Every structure is written in structure tokens, then in C-alpha cells.
Amino acid sequence: MEPEHYNNALTAETGRRGGQKRMEQLSATERSALARYAAKSRWHPREAQAAKEKAREITYLIKQALKDGKQLPLI
After folding, report:
1. Is residue 5 scored above 60 in pLDDT?
2. Sign of the CA dihedral 48, 54, 56, 58?
3. pLDDT digits (tens, 9 = 90+) for 31-72
4. Contact 75/67 with Cβ under 8 angstroms?
5. Distance between CA atoms of 46 and 14, rounded to whole angstroms?
6. Distance of CA 56 to CAs 2, 30, 51, 53, 60, Å?
7. How far apart are CA 39 and CA 47, in angstroms?
8. Which of 13, 15, 30, 63 could form a disulfide with 26 if both were Cys (CB 3.0 to 4.6 A apart)?
9. What is the 3-state secondary structure (H, E, C) of 31-72?
10. pLDDT at 29 over 90
């Protein structure tokens, strides 16, 4: 038996409206990137996880460099 909140039509409608509201705020390029990421996550979860970890590592390194007051190299 499913929990009651799965059958609640109001909850489903609220979630749908929230998703639509978010999509209205994104540009076509951002929506496309999100869709691409979602498809990759679904069909190639290991590759998506590796990309996410690499992005976290790069973000961490940049934050550390900025925190230390170092100049970031221009590539």
C-alpha cells in the first residue's frame, strides 16, 4: 500500500506548478543543459557522478585560491 501523500492530488499539482515556474525563469540554453544532464544521469550514472565530483573539486580549488588571496591563472 502506497503512503497517503503519493495519492494526494493537491501535492502533485503543487509540484507541477513549482516545476513550471522554475522552467519559466530559465533560458532555453539552461533548460537544454538541465535536460542533457538529466538524461546523462539516467543512462550513464557513473559518468555523471564523475563529472559532478570533478566540478566539486574545481569549485573547491577556486574557493580556496580566492580565500587565500591568490591570483587565479588565466588560461
Report:
1. no
2. negative
3. 999 889 889 889 999 998 898 899 999 999 888 888 877 776
4. no
5. 32
6. 36, 19, 9, 5, 6
7. 12
8. 30
9. HHHHHHHHHHHHHCHHHHHHHHHHHHHHHHHHHHHHHCCCCC
10. yes
